[in-house]
Amino acid sequence: MKRTLIIFYLVLFSAIGYAQNEKSFFNAEMIKLGWNIASPYLTAQIKDPLTKEIVTKTVPKLIDQDIKASVYEFTNSFYTVKGIKVLNKEFLSKLEISITKGINAVKTKDYITAVNEIIEIVSLGSSYLDIGLLNLADSKMSNSPTFDKSLLFSTSTLTEKLFVSNLNYLFFIDNGKLIIDYQDEESESFIIEMNSGATYEIGVLSIEMEDPIYLESLKADKELLNNFNRDFVNLMMESLGSGSILKTEFSDEYNFKSLKYTYAYTSNEDSQSYMAYFIFVFNGNSVYMIVLNSTTETFTQVKPDFAHLMENFYIVGIDETKIIEPCEANRTGQLILNNNSTNPYDVYFNGQYQFRMSGGSSKNVDIKEGKCSIYVKQVSGYAFYPTEVTKELSNVERCQKYRVAFP
Fold this sequence. Notes:
The protein is an alpha+beta fold and 407 residues long. The protein folds into 3 domains: 2-21 and 166-315, Mog1/PsbP, alpha/beta/alpha sandwich (Protein Transport Mog1p, Chain A); 28-157, no CATH class; 331-406, Immunoglobulin-like, CATH 2.60.40. Helices cover 36% and strands 32% of the residues.
């Protein structure tokens, strides 16, 4: 794929005008979207309710590079879950250092280090709490507490799943892992290894054109589309091999609009039969080209996986009029829980403990799309046996609200 990309890249730029575009390394919108996608995957692996609450609330403030708000969310979460005010000056000083390290990590798209900083400082805060110092302003800890490093995430936990490019796009692999094959200032290629055992390669080019191309114009003007198709085939024949377009289609997924080609050809390199699937995304002078290239024999096997990958592929700023909501990126619905009893209940989702709800309280929770089994069990206030209730949501849809009251 690397050689294919380089050849295509050189031929493409020899045939069309393009302009250089400076890419900023830190893009706050990119970083935030990356976290929206990665956070459900990471937080699902955090078992401690306090740590999960603090990571969920604090990391978005790290992304905003807001130290004060990050410290507030951290201490407020401690109070919400543990009922203890964080007043210890020694700990707060360590917390600010940890928050600063987390912000610096986020700037380089290193979510794992940022989350690990939070996990470690939560553990330290719990140590202060255990010996009764967390709410005492001027008390100091005499000994350095030990920390269970097995609680930390390894770098590969996320780097094999999420790729955040400096070219203003990102994608997430939820059923396999990715390996970076090649990178330069305008193009990147990846090897995708699926859990099913299938392996394929994809490439991405980011191009800045001298003159803009509009998708709606290609859809409305058949002559313009025919000319674009002709130029595309000529480029493919020169860079990949002799062949033809099997299918041309316009697509309007929720994450971006695109023009797609399926191109069958005989390779200039090894004379084998190949299939290439191209996705062009236009935004004024900016053009992204995403390509799946494989042998004819394996194309039908890997294309469904590639299509699924594209559901988790986002280009920031490609449609300025459309805002990608977190529930779209995370594929979550919102569950509104109401405890109508005066007694506390423990809440479980799909057999996993989530949190405790006090009597008469309500709570809004994001839940993944699909099936969700909600089980609640009375904690106290019963005579002989606790009340237990199970509610089933058979098909949670993204960005929809669901209300469940108990008992």
